[in-house]
Specification:
Length: about 280
């Protein structure tokens, strides 16, 4: 251990661990055998790094995280435009990061930050590229791969072996099925599958966990109007948004319509084909 390493007296550090730089390790954290921690790294209380974990760069990891063997966190972005500028990776609390995951910090082109929220499950071999913003309560299954600059909201499921194209946005409560390939934006609470992935319905399983029945019915009716109308999706969303502003209990409608109107990569749906 070298330089400005600060370790809480209750933390447990394996003798074979390598810790160098401006590293802070919080109370009751555990650092396993042969783990390597170098750079400006902060690890919160009760976080548990199993053996052979690598943490580097300007990386902040919150409390109660579990990081499994061979995960590589905070190494330089895999972006040819990256020229060594200072950038950061922030990980919140209560995340589970399974074997061989790789998370990269940001770049100048994306605000110099990659940010991950709380209570996420990242299964083995998940990749989070530079400048991604990932919310909370998400599940990314084995080998899910996020390109650069992707935004994932809260309560999202991404199936195994599914790549997501750079700059895509995935709304709250959405699901992308396994072995898909996603290159366009998925609005809140929608379910998509296929290569290229297309919306096939609503993620009712997740919706039932986070909202009431009347909210589900309202969202169902909204999407049927949006996806079955005789105008463009953007025009219909703008009309629905204006109506919603004069309504009570309009939070979900506003969120969905604003997402559609802000989409830059487009929404992958076929008019009139919303299977339930």
């Amino acid at each position: 251990m070298t330089n400005n390493v600060v370790i809480h007296p209750t933390a447990v550090i394996a003798k074979t661990a390598v810790i160098e730089g401006n590293v802070k390790i919080g109370a009751n954290a555990i650092i396993g055998d042969y783990s390597v921690i170098k750079g400006n790294v902060s690890i919160g209380e009760k976080s548990y790094l199993y053996n052979h974990v690598t943490i580097m760069g300007n990386t902040t990891i919150g409390k109660n995280n579990k990081i499994f063997p061979n995960a590589v966190i905070g190494t330089p972005p895999q972006d040819l435009k990256y020229k060594g500028e200072e950038s950061v990776l922030e990980i919140g609390d209560n995340n589970t990061i399974r074997e061989s995951c790789m998370f990269n910090p940001g770049t100048e082109g994306g605000g110099n930050i990659t940010k991950i929220g709380n209570d996420n499950l990242f299964m083995a071999y998940v990749h989070i590229a530079h400048d991604c913003i990932v919310g909370s309560h998400n599940i990314l299954a084995n080998n899910a791969t996020l390109g650069g600059h992707i935004h994932v909201a809260d309560h999202v499921n991404i199936g195994g072996m599914t790549p997501v194209h750079q700059f895509v946005k995935i709304g709250e409560g959405a699901m992308v099925a396994g072995a898909s390939a996603l290159s366009q934006d998925i609005p809140p609470y929608c379910m998509a599958e296929g290569n290229r992935a297309r919306i096939i319905g609503l993620n009712r399983f997740r919706m039932r966990k986070i909202m009431e029945r009347d909210e589900i019915d309202m969202i169902d009716a909204l999407y049927k109007r949006l996806f079955s109308g005789d105008k463009s999706l953007r025009d219909l969303a703008a009309m629905e948004l204006e109506v919603a502003k004069g309504m009570e209990n309009n939070t979900h409608i506003i969120k969905i319509c604003e997402f559609i109107l802000a989409s830059e990569r487009g929404i992958p749906y076929k008019r009139g084909e919303l299977n339930e």
